[in-house]
């Protein structure tokens, strides 16, 4: 009895190692290996931090920081760690499908179910969402000339809630099991009657924490763009990445709420015997399907719109010309954002609606392809007659254009309910979804990391290893997913642990080869980061503009100072920094400097994240004293923060002036480099303009004189 009070449902048998000792089957040993890697990885990290004496700097300079740049970097670190797990799980699933011809393979059905559930949950909620949020966090305030986001503490809290959700998913590798209900967790299968264990509860609370964090992020970013733009930065002078960030943020505000509602209602079904989604007693699982996909389809555009912004920045920079059709791209972005709320029902054409309802949503789904097509044409026309540099981000962009169009065509096919009925639960649908998300979002984020990494850390990523990553990932994706189109059309269903059709064997073998190449590409990415850190002096670009950039983030040192801009920029046109470089006014000292107020560090966010994660863990395992204690800590932290009076600090004008003067002096001493030396050690971050910037529109000036405007 005392054990139940202290540990709830938790016992030694809940540990993954106990399962391997009890039943040393291949499936249990795979789980044992995964759990061991998680534990040993955490221990190795703790030892490294201890030996290097990094615990203090980690706490002082990172975990308690509310600087948008550091928050953004931490989001991306969380995403990359979770990506490593998800891509390994994908390889294990693919190998199981190859090994399971006319037999059981080496994984049990439940283990396979956990794998496709964790893979989907991680990739959507804890890879794609954190990486795009981290990128928007870092880049957007710099592009609009802001010192930080509107609510820095809320920004850090959003990060810690997301991190707490990710930690819960990682804990499920070692303690207990994860859900087998897929990333969408449809009831009644995920209800208490059919899934009485802890797996669904892990999914509920991990996703709920991430969803709340994303809602807060959307509010924060939208307010920042509306209220924090520098003088002269009108909406129609914003870089396209800021437009896509704005639209994605608005989608976050309205789309994450149905997800949070659906997960909490499912929790009430499981914990309090409610009947929102049960088979009987008035429950209706279709309410869950509508709520989930009311989030689910806008979610696709929450992910893809920031990636579209990345592609717009990449193609313009590496084509050496202004983006073609800026106004049409802004209009297309807003159209996609609005239409994304009008198509959710196409995710369940097969669930009993009338033919007329299906037809309406099918037409809406086809219509959303029109503004997407506008973007493709504008990107292609931007490259037309440009001086294209085939850097790693540009290779990803060209590959994206080809594969994304093909994926979009299959989406038009699936928008037809009669076709969707035939392939809805098949591997054709799996191929289509990955065909949109991997080239569109994942490769977009890889390009963004390659593009903005020098801005964040002051040195470039190694180009050779970047291209090695691309040349593994590009064919790997095609081999891993294009065969699934064919076998999906011939009847291969998704989420199937075994199969007996011999015609599938060569296609699964090709898909396995693709998975191996993707794993090799992931390894190359990690090697690239390691090699770049080792050779960071050779790759250093402290002057901040290694690519002949066009927007404001390239006008300041790399990495940027805590306050971003010595004085607020004065913007007079679109592509203001490119215009200023052409006019020779890009690097001039302002008339005067002023003290700068920046938000101070605080332990509030990590404590809220810890308390939220602890409460969720207690709820999962019915450790009620832990839930109560964590909620008391959470409320106490919030109350204590409300009494804090010194929440900012002042950076003296003299310090700002000295640092900015040193930067300007370094700029004057540097001769600059042309595109031919872009990847050489001579590139210190002062790129000379490649060609005239006036291609589609006449100039209306650049940055105000001097570069940074007047007084702060």
Describe what this molecule looks like in 3D.
The chain has 712 residues and is mostly helical. The protein folds into two domains: 1-53, no CATH class; 54-540, Cytochrome C Oxidase, Chain A. The chain is 64% helix and 1% strand. It is built from 22 helices and two strands. It has a two-stranded antiparallel sheet with strand order 1-2. The model is unreliable at 693-702 and 704-712 (pLDDT under 50).
Q: Name the structural class.
A: mainly alpha
Characterize the main sheet: 2 strands, antiparallel
Write down the secondary-structure element order.
Answer: HHHHHHHHHHHHHHHHHHHEHHEH
Name the helicity range.
Answer: 55-70%
Q: In terms of quaternary structure, what is this?
A: single chain
CATH topology of the largest domain: Cytochrome C Oxidase, Chain A
Kindly provide the radius of gyration, computed on alpha-carbon positions and rounded to a whole number of angstroms: 26 Å
Please tell me the total number of domains.
Answer: 2
Indicate the CATH class of the largest domain: Mainly Alpha
Number of helices: 22
Strands in their spatial order, largest beta sheet: 1-2
Under the CATH scheme, which architecture of the largest domain would be assigned? Answer: Up-down Bundle
Beta-strand content estimate: under 5%
Task: Give a quick set of tags describing it.
single chain, 712 residues, mainly alpha, Cytochrome C Oxidase, Chain A, 2 domains, two-stranded antiparallel ribbon, 64% helix, globular, disordered C terminus
């Amino acid at each position: 009895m005392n054990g139940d009070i202290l540990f709830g449902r938790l016992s030694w048998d809940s540990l993954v190692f106990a399962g391997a000792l009890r039943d040393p089957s291949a499936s249990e040993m795979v789980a044992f290996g995964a759990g061991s890697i998680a534990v040993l990885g955490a221990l190795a990290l703790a030892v490294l931090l201890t030996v290097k004496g990094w615990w203090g700097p980690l706490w002082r300079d990172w975990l308690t920081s509310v600087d948008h740049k550091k928050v953004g970097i931490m989001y991306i670190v969380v995403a990359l760690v979770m990506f490593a797990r998800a891509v390994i799980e994908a390889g294990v699933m693919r190998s199981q499908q190859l090994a399971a011809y006319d037999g059981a393979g080496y994984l049990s059905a439940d283990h396979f179910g956990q794998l496709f559930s964790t893979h989907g949950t991680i990739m959507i909620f804890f890879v794609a969402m954190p990486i795009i949020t981290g990128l928007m966090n870092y880049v957007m305030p710099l592009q609009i000339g802001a010192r930080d986001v509107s609510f820095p503490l809320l920004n850090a809290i959003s990060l810690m809630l997301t991190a707490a959700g990710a930690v819960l998913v990682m804990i499920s590798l070692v303690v207990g099991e994860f859900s087998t209900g897929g990333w969408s967790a449809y009831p009644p299968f995920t209800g208490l009657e059919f899934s009485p264990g802890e797996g669904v509860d892990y999914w509920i609370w991990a996703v709920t924490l991430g969803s709340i964090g994303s809602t807060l992020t959307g509010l924060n970013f939208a307010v920042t763009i509306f209220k924090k733009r520098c003088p002269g930065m009108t909406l129609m002078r914003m870089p396209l990445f800021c437009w896509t960030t704005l639209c994605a943020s608005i989608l976050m505000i309205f789309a994450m709420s149905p997800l949070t509602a659906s997960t909490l209602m499912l929790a009430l079904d499981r914990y309090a015997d409610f009947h929102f989604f049960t088979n009987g007693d008035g429950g209706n699982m279709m309410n869950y399907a509508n709520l989930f996909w009311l989030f689910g389809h806008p979610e696709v555009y929450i992910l893809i719109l920031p990636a579209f912004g990345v592609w717009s920045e990449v193609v313009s920079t590496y084509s050496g010309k202004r983006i073609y059709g800026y106004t049409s791209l802004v209009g297309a972005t807003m159209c996609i954002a609005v239409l994304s709320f009008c198509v959710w029902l196409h995710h369940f054409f097969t669930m009993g609606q009338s033919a007329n309802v299906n037809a309406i949503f099918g037409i809406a789904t086809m219509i959303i392809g029109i503004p997407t097509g506008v973007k493709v044409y504008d990107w292609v026309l931007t490259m037309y007659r440009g001086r294209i540099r085939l850097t790693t981000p540009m290779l990803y962009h060209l590959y994206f254009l080809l594969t994304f169009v093909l994926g979009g065509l299959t989406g038009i096919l699936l928008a037809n309910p009669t076709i969707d009925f035939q392939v809805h639960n098949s591997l054709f649908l799996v191929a289509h979804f990955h065909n949109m998300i991997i080239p569109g979002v994942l490769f977009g984020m890889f390009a963004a990391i390659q593009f903005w990494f020098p801005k964040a850390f002051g040195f470039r990523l190694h180009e050779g290893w970047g291209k090695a990553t691309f040349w593994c990932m590009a064919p790997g994706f095609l081999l891993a997913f294009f065969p699934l189109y064919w076998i999906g059309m011939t009847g291969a269903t998704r989420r199937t642990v075994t199969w007996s059709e011999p015609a599938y064997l060569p296609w699964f073998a090709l898909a396995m080869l693709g998975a191996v190449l993707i794993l090799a590409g992931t390894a190359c990415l990690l090697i690239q980061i390691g090699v770049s850190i080792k050779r960071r002096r050779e790759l250093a670009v402290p002057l901040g503009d290694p690519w002949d950039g066009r927007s404001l983030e390239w006008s300041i040192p790399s990495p940027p100072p805590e306050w971003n801009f010595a004085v607020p920029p004065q913007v007079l046109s679109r592509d203001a920094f490119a215009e200023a470089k052409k006019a020779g006014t890009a690097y001039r000292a302002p008339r005067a400097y002023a003290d700068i107020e920046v938000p101070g560090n605080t332990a509030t966010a990590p404590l809220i994240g810890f308390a939220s994660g602890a409460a969720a863990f207690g709820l999962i395992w019915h450790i009620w004293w832990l839930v109560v204690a964590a909620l008391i800590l959470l409320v106490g932290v919030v109350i204590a923060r409300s009494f804090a009076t010194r929440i900012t600090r002042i950076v003296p004008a003299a310090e700002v002036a000295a640092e900015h003067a040193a930067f300007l002096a370094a700029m004057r001493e540097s001769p600059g480099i042309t595109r031919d030396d872009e990847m050489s050690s001579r590139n210190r971050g002062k790129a000379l303009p490649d060609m005239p910037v006036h291609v589609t529109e006449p100039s209306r000036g650049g940055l105000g004189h001097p570069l940074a405007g007047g007084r702060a």
